[in-house]
Amino acid sequence: MKTIIRNACIVNEGNRYVADILISNERIAKIDKSIHLSSLGSITEIDAEGLYLLPGMIDDQVHFREPGLTHKGNIYSESRAAVAGGITSFMEMPNTIPNTLTIELLEEKYLIASKTSIANYSFFMGINQSNVEEALKINNENVCGITDDGLYFNNDEGILANYPAFLEKLFSCSESLVALHSEDDGIIKNNTNFYRKKYGENIPFEFHPIIRSEAACLTATERVLEIAKKYNNRLHFFHISTLAEANLFDNKCAIREKRITAEACVHHLWFSDKDYKQLGAKIKWNPAIKSPEDRNGLLAALLDNSIDIIATDHAPHTIVEKSGTYFKSMSGGPLVQHALPAMLELVYKGKISLEKLVEIMSHHVAEIYRIKERGYIREGYYADLVLLDLNTSWKVSSANILYKCQWSPFENYCFKSKIVKTFVNGTIVYDNGIINNNKIGKRLKFSKTR
To bridge 64 with a disulfide, which of 78, 133, 183, 445 should be the other Cys (CB 3.0-4.6 Å)? Predict the structure, then answer.
């Protein structure tokens, strides 16, 4: 089976141009101004005149909740939402139940995905104080990296950024990419105690970015950076949330030359602390959504290459789990279906170019993780593609939300751009609201040297 996408405006590697693309055997076989096939056989032709064709988005930070937390979401349900949002590949976190702290548990997740995932997939190996040797056994060609994100490190408290001696040990011997959540537990604890004394259990949600403050983020990030620079290992910072942190990162090196990289998340680029009064727990994330100045600073850092990529930190909870008082409502929320449409709003407003958006949601993710044959529209690469209509509006509603948790912080928002089709490995998996529920995704492969 072959497919020709005709007359699309291709956006790729800093350029946009109208051309045809031939897809054959899961891959991009040819890119040309006009493709004519003389051979007989089954060919599907798609007229994409007036539409834009991008490489599929790659999301390096999601929590799909399987195994153990599948009342919130699972690999099947959330990968369906991802492809509807133009995300063709994802990397998932280890804070499932049980935590992914052994090679055996890691491979069990890969097995589940091989049977159920519509998008391409990889899974992070979790790390804590007791499994260092096990974590370092991962095969860099088959696993995206090692992380503490979502895991407790010691006595049900703390992340690795708070344990410099352990980080010294890890960075000195790791040949894999290490990705970290960076906040200072001591600062957060002191702030929490202060506001608990003042408000009891009913702390207003607008104090979340004061409790999980700029100082908490900056202190931890500076600490981790100081240690990492000693060893020149591959370190990636998840969900940077402040302008102060963004100013710490290098914007002089080309992406392939960077040993330390960082990301911003969609919610930190869209919302600000002005939105807590209206949305409350629905935008409670860790790290917290902060000021408009931080939001604008993160976008500026993406534009000047201080921060390298955009991710979602998709972390679904049921609406009941997101309800109640400050301490009862869980942190995190669903985003994969609406991440690209939200970022396209910034394109529409002239805040970022479509070419730059493709760079930081596709190209740079592939470069940071050394993903093989994905992240670009190139002959010979897998045909992971998203076809966009930039001039058709649609409204987020309960009827079209695909997350298993069935809610979104974007509900009732009207986006100006629409995803028309998503291709994974050359197969149409999303087509104007219709999802191909067959297992299509493949395990991501990486270069051995990070």
Answer: 78
